[in-house]
Design goal:
The chain is mainly α. The protein is 64% helix and 0% strand. It has one domain. The protein has 9 helices and no strands. Helix 1 packs antiparallel against helix 8. The radius of gyration is 18 Å and the shape is elongated. The N terminus and C terminus are likely disordered.
Length: 208
């Protein structure tokens, strides 16, 4: 089956996340709260990863396990583990990066999309604590109560979300290139590279 790059959704979703980052240049600082476009970047970054997994299942003829998991509506985490486990190289370690960052990004997206009333205003929410530990958010000053979600919506968190996608693509790019479906994967990568991943990668290689 012939698949054209334009059929992939992940580059479009990545572009939407990056456009939100561009709009966040107007934020007072990286950790300024209540930046609505941070929610846009988080949601669309997570959606990019989910789309990528589905697209890999589409282009990789030999990855029947991933395709089967997709049809069975398995969790994103399970699909990621199946995908990485079937590539040449080392499987994901669920207790280490980058898997932990990907899992956190998915959790943040799920929490934003399926938000439930939570009274936490003191920085004790587990997702907020995780964001703070990554330098993506800051606890409110003593005596000031701010809903945890408001604290989370920062430019730094939005930038981190997009970076998680970039690092995920880089993590599997080298392994995928060694697999039989490498040329098909390059279609997805080429489209994503057009949204800014290429520029970041080139900069890293130059600095190295």
């Amino acid at each position: 089956m012939s698949i054209k790059a334009g059929a992939f959704a992940s580059p479009i979703l990545m572009k939407l996340a990056r456009q939100a980052i561009d709009r966040l240049k107007q934020a007072p600082s990286d950790l300024a709260w209540a930046q609505e476009d941070a929610a846009v970047a988080i949601v669309f970054s997570a959606a990019t990863i989910e789309a990528l997994v589905a697209e890999f299942a589409l282009v990789c003829n030999g990855m029947r396990n991933t395709a089967g998991t997709e049809k069975q509506r398995g969790s994103v985490r399970l699909k990621l583990l199946v995908l990485k486990g079937m590539l040449p190289g080392v499987p994901f370690d669920t207790g280490k990066l980058p898997f932990q960052d990907i899992a956190l990004l998915i959790d943040l997206r799920d929490c934003l999309v399926h938000l439930k009333p939570v009274e936490t205003t003191d920085g004790s929410h587990k997702l907020l604590r995780a964001a703070i530990s990554r330098g993506c958010a800051a606890s409110p000053p003593a005596g000031i109560e701010v809903p945890w979600l408001i604290q989370l919506l920062t430019r730094a968190c939005a930038q981190w979300a997009v970076r998680v996608v970039e690092e995920f693509v880089e993590c599997i790019r080298a392994d995928a290139a060694k697999a039989p479906f490498g040329p098909s994967f390059s279609l997805v990568a080429a489209e994503l590279w057009g949204t800014g991943v290429a520029a970041r990668t080139a900069g890293n290689e130059t600095s190295g």
